[in-house]
Write the structure tokens for this entry.
Amino acid sequence: MKRVYYLPLSSVHPTERTPESFQEAERKWGDQEDMQTIKSLKEALRTKRPVPPIVVERIKRGNYAIRNGHHRYAAATWIGLKKIPAIISDYVHDPDGNKPIKWEKTA
């Protein structure tokens, strides 16, 4: 079973530009299904209902890049959370570039 950590949002960095507001998200992710997902996530986080942890890659000590969970990160940021549940995993990259070739669990 993978361990869930509660990481400070300040140490988690999106690997894609995360919209700064709900209105900007509507323009970027305009899909109604995406926007409903974000609304649901915001409400779940606000009322402390469980949501799946995001998956991050350790970049260096105390800094993580989001690999899965950009919508959850955006929702957490918009409602002012200080920490977010996360699973820390490592990508293994091929020697010639950034192409991930598999996941490895980090304890």
Summary: Confidence is low (pLDDT under 50) at residues 101-107. The chain is about 30% helix and 35% strand.
